[in-house]
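Fold it.
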Amino acid sequence: MVEHKGHIIKIEGNTVTVKVLQLSGCAHCEGKKYCTLAEAKEKEIKISVKDPSIYTVGEEVEIIAHKKQLFTAVFWAYVLPLILLFIGVGLGSILELPEIHSALMGLIAVAMYYVFLFAINKYLSKSLEFKISKLR
């Protein structure tokens, strides 16, 4: 499981919004103040809960996600588009199209894929569920 600590910034209905500080791999390095590679990003994650009354705005909580779900998300977002890009370029090469047309075929395949992802966004968001727990 992957766990991140964050603070609740908003509660609306059964949805709790948590702000999480996503740290890069070298964020804990002593030399980070001299290095431009260290970075930290804030992310807002919306989580559906059964009983939002047990949480308060400003409370520190822990967000939990299963690694299997995260690997699935990485596959949908990065791996499959890369495969489609190669298929489009390869198909253009097989058809002996000019290189620019082969490249465009790959890019069009990826663009169509992202339109498809946008269309099934509700289904995908249900398959990637975060859980929230109070810190003790």
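Helices lie at 67-94, 99-119, 121-127.
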